[in-house]
Amino acid sequence: MSMSSLPTRRSLLRAGMGLTLAGAGLSVAGPALPAVAAGPAMAAGQSGTPLCDRPGDSASQQGLGSGDLAIPYYREHDGTWGYVFGDAWTGTRQSGEYIGSPVMLNQASFDASGATPISFTWAMPTGGRAGQLFAYGHDTDNGYGHEVSRIPNDCIEFGGRTYIQYTSVHTWDPPAGYDGSLMSGVAYSDDHGVTWHDYDYRWAGDLQGANQSLYGMWSFAGIDPDGWLYVFSKRWNGTHKNTADGGAIQLFRIRPDDFRDGNFGAQQNWAHLGGSWQWTTAAPPSVILTGHNTGEFSVKRINGTYCMSYFDVDMGAICTRTAPRPDAVWSIPVPQITALTVPNLYGGYIHPGSASATSLTLIVSQWNGTVGTPYRVLQFDGIRP
């Protein structure tokens, strides 16, 4: 597959959506929490403000014209914010030179009130013009099998090290029942995003014989006050074409020091074992949520509440849920931003600096699959999950 075929990634996004929630993600971990009524998606503050794809904007000043995802994370070493884009170009509306994936822009300070939109103030990896963070080739075999691109799923920094979990994509057009991935991995940086290294361990994907691996896409929920790093993961469906995705999500946790050391075998799994739910190393994680096919997802601990957002491929909507603990039962999904208000949307990453668990900032992507149209990210504030 050539780089010119990358636009097919988003070509199957739905133009409309239904509001039925039948089967849209029921937990099996206990009694359901009461649903919270959805507030208006277009709340006070930034309501769909484009953060790139506009000539002269802050992204273009850092060398990025158009891109998607813009996964936000907190740079704890200096109190600033990073945003990790997927495939990106120097020009607006997906024109100009292809930069690569992943790409990072940074921000000195974030206004959680939504009064001021996100503005990027410098780029990685050099602090000058935006560039691809990882050293790998596109549309080639880098030693693991043919890969087209490495797409970031989430980013977190703790203990002086930055981590990006990514999926290596083998094809953007997988056959029905296949996810099209090559593998998944975790890259780390000890200089806050300038240089990157891979852990030796990688999770096999479709091309390597592990189609539908539940370790395909991760979201770092964060380090809880109990000292564990909680991680949610699911099947790769960044293509939005994985017909076998089923919305399945699993949960595991690991001590931060073990994670830093690449000792991934030390994880504990949230599993239904012997008739009850428990943390264990004796069984793999059990599926905690199922429902519609889902794409990008995000879980973050905001002021003590765990908040989840995800793109429901079948509905064409970004939905949210909450839980008091990562291993508690999640509330029913609430559609927040739909294709009726933002055509051809996807993504929907929770900003870890959100004002509160009842006033989230979401970073939403938009692209309609044809050349010469927006390929960008939008900022929404005041989202009540």
TrEMBL record:
<dbReference type="Pfam" id="PF13810">
    <property type="entry name" value="DUF4185"/>
</dbReference>
<feature type="domain" description="DUF4185">
    <location>
        <begin position="55"/>
        <end position="380"/>
    </location>
</feature>
<dbReference type="InterPro" id="IPR006311">
    <property type="entry name" value="TAT_signal"/>
</dbReference>
<dbReference type="InterPro" id="IPR025442">
    <property type="entry name" value="DUF4185"/>
</dbReference>
<keyword id="KW-0732">Signal</keyword>
<protein>
    <recommendedName>
        <fullName>DUF4185 domain-containing protein</fullName>
    </recommendedName>
</protein>
<feature type="signal peptide">
    <location>
        <begin position="1"/>
        <end position="37"/>
    </location>
</feature>
